[in-house]
Every structure is written in C-alpha cells, then in structure tokens.
Amino acid sequence: MAIDASIIIVNWNTRQLLAKCLLSLCQNTDGFELEIIVVDNASTDDSVPYVRQNFPNVKLICNSTNKGFAAANNQGLALACGKNILFLNSDTIVHTGALTAMVELLDTKPDAALCACRLVNEDGSVQHSVRSFPTFRAMLARHTICKYLGMFRDERNLYRTRNFDYDQTVQVDQLMGAVLMTKRDILERIGPMDENLYFYFEETDLCRRARDEGLKVYFTPRGRITHLARASSNLLGSHTTWAMFLKSMFYYFRKHEGKTRTFLFAAVFKPGLYCYAVCEMLAGFGLAAAGVCLRREKDKIRQKLLRSRRCLLFLARYGLRFLFY
After folding, report:
1. For the purposes of burial, counting CB atoms within 10 Å of the CB of 16, is it exposed (0-12), middle (13-18) or buried (19 or more)?
2. Model confidence over 253-295: pLDDT tens digits?
C-alpha cells in the first residue's frame, strides 16, 4: 500500500512528550496511510525501549551520539517512503484534521514547497509560529544594546510579525520548525536540511532555499497541533541554547547574505551583544532589589532574573570564544 505521509520525529530525552505525540498520531491519522520514523539522538532516558515496546510499528533510528536536529531529520528522510514528508517535534500533539489540512494545501497549490497548520499552546491560545526572514538590523535590535537604545524597533517587529493574522491561509517567509510539511519531490529539488546547522535556523534556511527556487511557503489556519515548546532546549540551559542560536545565525547569514557583509555585521553585533548582556544583568539585579523592597511585580522580576542569569552564564562560559563564532 502506498504511504501518504512519512512523519519524522527527532527525540532527545523527551520520552513522556514523545509518548503523547505518537499516541496522538495513532489516534488522528485522518484516514491516511502513515509511516512514523523516530530518530533518537542518544537519549539517556528510556525513550528507545519505550518506543520499541509500545509502538512496534514505528521505525526507530538510534544514534550513539547527538547528531543535531538537521542531521537527525535527514537520517529519517533517507528512510522515508511517503509522498509527503512531515517534520514534527516530539513535544507536539496532533489533532484531527491537521494532517488533512496540510496535505490538501500542498495538493491544491502547485507553487507550495512547505506548509504548516495552526499551532496552539497547551491552554489552546494561538502560538506565534510565523516570522519574516531575519535581517541584520532585526538581530541587532533583538540581541544587542540596540534593544535598550530603541534602535531598529520596526525591523524587529517586522521579523516577529507582530500583526500577523492567524485566521487566513497566506504565503509567508518562514514557519516554526516544530511542524513543517513538504513533498518528497520538493526536497529532491531544494535539498534536505543543512547539517551545518546543529540547532536553530534549519527551517529558516529550508524556507529561504525554497523561495530562492521560486517556490512558496504557506500557513493555514485549518487544522490544529498543540506545541508544548522548548522541551529539549530547556534541558540544555538557556545560555547554551542562546549560544547555539547565535552560532547558527552567523552561519545562516554567511550562507545567504555573504561572508563580507556578515563579517561587517559581526564586528558591530558582537560588542553590542556584550553590552546588552551587561545591561541585562544590571537591570535584572536592580529590578529584583527594588521589587523585594516594594514587594510587587513578582512575575516580571522572575523573568528579568532569568534573563540576567542567562547573560551571566553565557559570558562566564563562552567569554571571548564567542568572538570566533
């Protein structure tokens, strides 16, 4: 029997979430013939024996080391036999109609390369899963002292698509990589995920390459998938994932914006980031001290302290090494 869709799930120490994800797929096939492939990136929990025992029909790839998100997805892709390919995070729950919505969109829009349905948070609220392609100015406004100075705020808001309408089917720049469907022949045309991107920017690069080939990326509000978000990244620590984000960002810019322009950007960005990190630490500690005295805004203080801690750990761990990213 022909396989309608191959679903590739990369797992790293998220057994409980993976179990919910696999169960939701088994219960909500939408009548499609599915092939589920789990690529385990050297988990130290009981993910592998659990899948073998409880989901024997799932194809399981067990890596001896963590190969990263892109490389693991490509391993699954090499094994996949479906006409459609769905890259799916382990921290998702698929609901009835989600697969149908994405398959039908790809079938009815000949220029569509990739698509995703609506993502929602655990409480049912819409999760912001659409963004514009990153620009130098947007990254300066988000990760450097420019944020405190109010510079390039419009570029940052454009990147984060603050006013995006999640109730319409529309072409977009990029989609969150937690849920991303495409067709096998599309990947044969634009290529698989770039394995130089260990974590972060994999979907951004894939969407950018699709656009460069004259293809389009679509969001559809039809269908719904719950995304619990940051399951694996939380295990690493925010300062580590921030470093991974920045390293992937520089690689992405070198690839798509050119080495010279990226070098000039980095010469401004890196000192600006150090200044931003120091300001975040001072602001966090100052707000915490004021909050303790006034006994107010506890949630805001907590969030600020978490960002201060991230900056402190980032500078302590990576220091001047960051200059060579």
Report:
1. middle
2. 999 999 999 999 999 999 999 899 888 888 776 666 555 555 5
Domains of the chain and CATH, by start: 5-128+164-234 (3.90.550.10), 258-319 (no CATH)
Print the SS3 string covering 131-197: ECCCCHHHHHHHHCCHHHHCCCHHHHHHHCCCCCCCCCCEEECEECCCEEEEEHHHHHHHCCCCCCC
- In three-state secondary structure terms, 224 is strand
- Asked whether the CA dihedral 123, 125, 130, 136 is positive or negative, the reply is negative
Q: Give SS3 for 218.
A: strand
Token readout for 127 is 């999760």
Pick from 94, 3, 88, 107: nearest CA to 38: 88
How far is it, in rounded angstroms, from Cα 137 to Cα 151?
A: 9
pLDDT tens digit sequence for 55-101? 999 999 999 999 999 999 999 999 999 999 999 999 999 999 999 99
What is the distance between the alpha carbons of residues 4 and 312, in angstroms, rounded to a whole number?
Answer: 48
